[in-house]
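Q: What would this chain look like folded?
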Amino acid sequence: MRSKFNLGAGLTVGAMLLCAISPAHASWINGTVAQLQALDKITARISTLSAPIGEPIRFGTLEIVIQRCAFRPPEEPPENVAFLEITDRGHDQTAPGRQVFSGWMFSSSPAVSAVEHPVYDVTLLDCIID
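A: My prediction, written as structure tokens:
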């Protein structure tokens, strides 16, 4: 008995093999402003913050500086990343601050690199060109 070759199945398997052999190289677009969501756990106040690259912004006692922000082009799976440095300055402005976070944040996985602070939460929403 002759077996029939299914052209659709053959093309699907071929495409899967091609994807497995040649890894996709995601290109990133540098943004100029990071959109953050900040939560004050005491008052339950949620704020959306715009943080330009390299300029410190304040939320409560926190000082947030975005070092880099990037996003994928529209034809790639959506993802935003930012490198943040967050310092708790406290209420005494003359005292040195205590760094509470320094690292990369991903908008699609906020729990991967979360800010651990007893009063505040900060997550990355978006990276844009302003």
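Residues 1-23 have pLDDT under 50 and may be disordered.
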